[in-house]
Amino acid sequence: MEYQYINHINSPADLKKLSPNELPAVCGELRQFIIEALSKNPGHLASSLGTIELTVALHYVFNTPEDKLVWDVGHQAYAHKILTGRRDRFHTNRQFKGLSPFTNPAESEYDAFIAGHASNSISAALGLDIALSHWPLAVSSEKANSQQPMAKNHNVVAIIGDGAMTGGLAFEGLNNTSMDKNNLLVVLNDNHMAIDPLKGGITQYLVDLTTSETYNKWRWNLYQLAAKLNLVDERKRQALLRRNNNLKAMFSRQPSNIFTGLNIRYFGPTDGHDVIGLVRILSEIKNHRGPKVLHIITKKGKGYAPAENDQTVWHAPGEFDVASGERIQNSDVRIQPLWQEVFGEKLLEMAKQNEKIVGITPAMPSGCSMSIMQKELPDRVFDVGIAEGHAVTFSAGLAKAGMLPYCNIYSTFLQRAYDNIVHDVALQNLHVVFCIDRAGIVGNDGATHHGLLDLAYLRPIPNMQICAPRTAEDLQAMMQLAETLDGPVAIRYPRGRTPMDAFSLQPSAVSYGKGVKLCDGKDIAVLTIGSIGNPMAEAIESVSHQPSAISIAHYDMRWLKPLDEEILHEVGKRFKTIVTAEDGMIAGGLGSAVLEWMADHGYTPHVIRLGVKDQFVEHGSTKELYHMLKLDKEGLCESLLQVQAK
Ligand SMILES: Cc1ncc(C[n+]2csc(CCOP(=O)(O)OP(=O)(O)O)c2C)c(N)n1
Q1: What gap in Å lies between CA 618 and CA 510, rounded to an integer?
Q2: How far is the CA of 310 from the centre of ligand 1 (A)?
Q3: Second label for 131, Cα 20 to 30 Å away, from 196, 243, 258, 603?
Q4: Measured in angstroms, how far is the CA atom of residue 119 from the centroid of ligand 1?
């Protein structure tokens, strides 16, 4: 499509050539561009539609990349990508070898910090601000590397949503911001939503703050009336604002609130979709010394009715038809249920039978399908906000008082709660069931979101019991079995659809600490855990048809902790070569556990460990990434054939 403005904006310098009056048109084009692009190449739509005016205003007022914009999560930064030289590649966003799903300094000098996990922006931006102000040497060496002239009067801005603001880390950052000398600007983008609607004290507080600001509201009413009557051109608008002294009020009056209480200047709340107003406010406040918060009110999905009307679904809607707003659903011939649906249905079923069961989710009820139980038993589900550490310790408290929490956290986000698991749960051997969603490769969300570390980080924790299902039936059985155990139990399962059962045996009951032999063989033993057992079973089947094929025994270990020692003794005695495979880091996971066990028990097989070597894995479709890692059927076949050739 021919865009009058954005086709000529290749960097913020081009944007700055425009007059403020042209900025609304730029916003309109960006909105159209993003909607069109995401209809074909899916991504985070609603959040990015909500920040377009803010993005344009920030790049118009600040001097990026010398001034630093630190986006929280980075899922709302699509307009930022487009304005900073990535428009031509935006159709590759989130794709294999394409643009990063979130902001990423390795991709662009305009991306000041890594993003993907919520609530880090204030801390990171404060660090940048303090370093840039106090250690010019550090600054100059950073600049030397990026070949940029050294900024004299830099500005650092953290842009954080009200959802991300529910994370404890954000408050740790604010607390520090109020203590140390700095000029940080925090823009609080308040749309009353995370992925799902936000609840809780902070959200209510922000709503109250917004509604109590009647003075500002009055200004808007007045302005809107004037606009309706066609009384507002830029000159009149300025006069209006000046005459009514509102801007002055905004700058002079410091209402008492949580931010001012922390000694951080507070501006707002203000309309986050009035780009000209934002430019004016940002220009004013950017030179204020000391830390400050600008509170803007936006609408998630702004400007695209389907997204405005169902913000949760349109957070990341997949492909869609722009005109009708119909989402394009995958019409597979036989659609297997999602792992998430299996989890959600089973949890509800169990909770109906055991009134001690409660569900805990840190802001992902739809994503993990705890919404199924939430609908029927709302009092027994706790969406605690984007607060994984709290979710774990809160679960520990519930367990200590006799409840049975099923705490569902994505593998990657559980990293945020490591000490809570160790100190608050495991040390007291509390019966918390961790349902670890999105384990393994997650696909287009990339390096910040893959769940590759959990097996390795959970295994050393005393009292922790860890299992992984290969089939939907296994997941149900493991959830059921976990109810009868004691102490912490972790059940990890992937994103996406459960496998067709072509390669499964009749679903056998899951027993504690017991694996299952899927097929017997004489020459080598293959040990897998979790869903990678399925492509491995296919690979073994395929290899077995090769001429001079070796005979392979395949064990699905099911449990990483405790390990099935009966299987391990059998394998240690019978086989000289053992292959382990897991969809996680090789260091510390199943392969490591098997090697250690064999060494400890006097067996000396050759153990070949398949999994993810010491690297962060990029983004792309799950299929492409497993292929790249040689952990799909073809890759596993190749590895088995190599073993056979030796
Ligand atoms: C630590 C962490 N937990 C969970 C998520 C998943 N997540 C991505 S965006 C999002 C909602 C963010 O809400 P908000 O900051 O208000 O931004 P909005 O999408 O509303 O613009 C969540 C929960 C995450 N990225 N990081």
Answers
A1: 34
A2: 16
A3: 258
A4: 8
Confidence class for position 149, pLDDT limits 50, 70, 90: very low
Nearest-5° Cα angle at 201, 199 to 204: 70
Question: How confident is the model at residue 201, as a pLDDT?
Answer: 85
Ligand 1 atom with the shortest distance to the CA of 448:
25
Q: Give yes or no for a contact between 411 and 492, defined as CB atoms under 8 angstroms apart.
A: yes
User: How many other C-beta atoms lie within 10 A of the C-beta of residue 32?
Assistant: 16
Whether the upstream peptide bond of residue 136 has omega within 30° of 0, thus cis, is no
Distance from first CA to last CA of the chain, Å, rounded? Answer: 57
Q: Is the CB of 75 under 6 A from ligand 1?
A: yes
- Decide if 172 contacts 123 (C-beta within 8 A): yes
Least confident of 223-227, 373-377, 610-614: 223-227
Task: List the structure tokens of 321.
Answer: 């038809």
Q: Is the CB of 365 under 6 A from ligand 1?
A: no
> Ligand 1 centre and the CA of 304: distance in Å?
20
The tokens of 147 are what?
């070949």
pLDDT at 227: 63
Is there a contact between 194 and 166 (Cβ–Cβ < 8 Å)?
yes
The answer to whether the CB of 47 is under 6 A from ligand 1 is yes
The three-state DSSP-derived secondary structure of 244-267 is CCHHHHHHHCCCCCHHHHCCCEEE
- CB 164 near ligand 1, within 6 Å: yes
Sheet bearing 552-556, strands edge to edge: 516-519, 552-556, 524-528, 577-585, 606-612
Q: Which residues contact 539 (CB under 8 A, 6 or more apart)?
A: 633, 634, 636, 637, 640
Backbone angles phi, psi at 115, to 5 degrees: -140, 160
pLDDT band, very low/low/confident/very high, at 228 (cuts 50, 70, 90) = low
Using 50, 70 and 90 to split pLDDT, how confident is the model at 224?
Answer: low
In the structure encoding, which two tokens stand for residue 450, read together? 């893959």
For ligand 1, say whether the CB of 390 is within 6 Å of any of its atoms: no
Tell me which residue of 295, 282, 88, 60 sits closest to 174, measured CA to CA. 295
Kindly report the three-state secondary structure assignment for every residue of 318-334.
CCECCCCCCECCCCCCC
Q: What are the φ/ψ torsions at residue 532 (nearest 5 degrees)?
A: -65, -15
For residues 482 and 487, what is the distance between their CA atoms, to the nearest angstrom? Answer: 9
Report, as residue numbers or ranges, the catalytic residues. 300, 388, 416
One-letter-per-residue 3-state SS of 364-406: CHHHHCCHHHHHHCHHHEEECCCCHHHHHHHHHHHHHCCCEEE
Q: Which of 27-31, 203-207, 292-296, 393-397 has the lowest mean pLDDT?
A: 203-207
Q: Tell me if residue 558 falls in helix, strand or coil.
A: coil
Using most ligand atoms within 8 A of CB, pick from 386, 408, 448, 450 the residue to mutate for ligand 1: 386
Sign for the pseudo-dihedral over CA of 478, 483, 484, 485: positive
CA atoms within a 13 Å half-sphere pointing along the CA-CB vector of 444? 16
Comparing CA positions, the residue from 306, 317, 311 lying closest to residue 37 is 317
In angstroms, the CA 393 to CA 37 distance is: 41
